[in-house]
Design goal:
Blueprint: E1 2-6, H1 10-21, E2 25-29, E3 45-46, H2 56-80, E4 91-95, H3 98-114, E5 122-125, H4 126-132, E6 142-146, E7 150-151, H5 154-167, E8 171-173, E9 178-184, E10 187-192, E11 197-200, E12 202-205, H6 211-214, E13 225-236, E14 248-250, E15 255-259, H7 273-286, E16 295-305, E17 312-315, E18 322-326, H8 334-339, H9 341-345
Parallel strand pairs: 1-2, 1-12, 2-8, 12-18
Antiparallel strand pairs: 3-7, 4-6, 5-6, 9-10, 10-11, 13-15, 13-16, 14-15, 17-18
Bound molecules: flavin-adenine dinucleotide (FAD).
The site of flavin-adenine dinucleotide has 42 residues, from helix 1, strand 13 and strand 16.
Length: 364
């Protein structure tokens, strides 16, 4: 039974690895270098804090994945030799505006209530925060801390997954854009841009923004849109930041990564000075000494957003054997996608209940 996975970003590769571990044959078809690829431009957080406000199932799913991350990273390292530089010492969100801090605390309290009290977080004022992170600036009124948050090197993750898939016997075709996909008596046939055709019994559509075109061919609505995020990174600095935040983290090589903006600009992934200046201003408000740091690089990438920001996990009702998977936190969810999602794709008894994430929620 061969499963063709369309899209070899972090989502497609996580699923491919998980299916291979379940004994499935897998062929990954990944498009061109010029494609929009969130997996190569993201912030690298394995993040829980605040996720799932209004949908506790998403909070639980993200936390379940974060809880699986340590063993997942170790397993990939043992198999491929890549150390993913996973750090899960908890994360801070810093606030310079009182109303925003109040909103965050209200959100985390609501999540704690929805989780029957099983949701740990702390609120720190500037004085308490400064004891832990002396470099914190006077403009920071306070922070929230969640012990389940962490970060990873997302490019090492991608390399490790690619290597792991091949070591497990999977095949990855790069530079292989799928332009059409249809059902056949025996499963599915995909047509590639170079005119070749491939057949397989099952299809997983995990093509990021490429699913906008391919989804309807398999009966999916694929109601996703791009959302631009800009980021920047400084020169390597002596280690001072031992916890990531939603906007600042010290990467394993030493640079401070600063991000990420949010803008609805369509398929536009070019950074601009005004946005980058805003990111820099926030970073300096939080850590004033960063004003002297050299900026090394800035870039923009496109998130893959569903209308409500939650993942979409959908089996096709019109094309049995086809599955659509997309999310806007593919790094955080990589462990769940590799360890738990394959059972759901194969309809095994152990499948997690993901019904809240199907496309039916967008029916008018
Ligand atoms: C600025 C920014 C910051 C982010 N920060 C975080 C974070 O801190 N933590 C977190 O968890 N997530 C974060 N994300 C989100 C995360 O990066 C994405 O959820 C994840 O990368 C999505 O992976 P994907 O495989 O679905 O998509 P992609 O990485 O876009 O991969 C899709 C793949 O499909 C291929 N493809 C497309 N069309 C076709 C076709 N027709 N045929 C064959 N192949 C095709 C493409 O070539 C591509 O390789 C961030 C994203 C952005 C943009």
């Amino acid at each position: 039974m061969t499963t063709m996975i369309i899209g070899g970003g972090v989502v497609g590769l996580s699923v491919a690895y998980g299916l291979l571990k379940q004994g499935q044959d897998v062929v990954v078809l990944d498009g061109a270098d010029g494609d929009f690829r969130a997996s190569r431009g993201n912030f690298g957080l394995v993040w829980v804090q605040g996720k799932g406000a209004g949908c506790v199932e998403y909070s639980l799913w993200s936390r379940r994945s974060a809880g699986l991350w340590a063993s997942f990273a170790q397993e990939l390292q043992d198999l491929t030799g890549f150390d993913l530089k996973l750090v899960q010492t908890g994360g801070f969100e810093y606030f310079t505006i009182a109303a925003e801090l109040e909103n965050q605390v209200a959100k985390l309290l609501a999540l704690r209530n929805a989780s029957n009290g099983d949701y740990t977080f702390e609120v720190l004022d500037n004085v308490a925060l400064k004891k832990q992170i002396p470099e914190i600036g006077p403009k920071v009124l306070g922070a929230t801390y969640c012990p389940e948050d962490g970060h990873v090197n997302p490019l090492f993750l991608l390399k490790a997954l690619s290597s792991a898939v091949q070591k497990k016997g999977g095949v990855i075709h790069t530079g292989t854009k799928v332009i059409d996909v249809t059902s056949t008596d025996a499963g599915f046939m995909v047509v590639l841009e170079n005119g070749k055709q491939l057949n397989g019994e099952k299809v997983v559509l995990s093509a990021g923004l490429g699913a906008i075109d391919l989804g309807p061919k398999l009966g999916f609505r694929a109601p996703i849109r791009p959302q631009q995020g800009q980021l920047m990174v400084t020169e390597k600095l002596p280690t001072f930041l031992y916890h990531p935040s939603g906007t600042l983290r010290q990467v394993n090589e030493g640079g401070i990564q600063i991000g990420a903006s949010k803008a609805e600009l369509g398929l536009h992934d070019v950074e601009d000075v005004l946005t980058i200046a805003g990111l820099a201003r926030h970073a300096i408000d939080v850590f004033p000494h960063l004003a002297k740091a050299k900026m090394v690089r800035s870039w923009a990438a496109l998130r893959i957003m569903s209308p409500d920001g939650l993942p979409i996990y959908q089996h096709s009702t019109t094309h049995p054997g086809a599955t659509f998977i997309t999310c806007h936190s593919g790094i955080t969810l990589a462990a769940a996608h590799a360890e738990l999602l394959p059972d759901w794709i194969m309809n095994n008894n152990a499948a997690p209940d993901l019904s809240v994430f199907n496309e039916g929620r967008f029916d008018v």
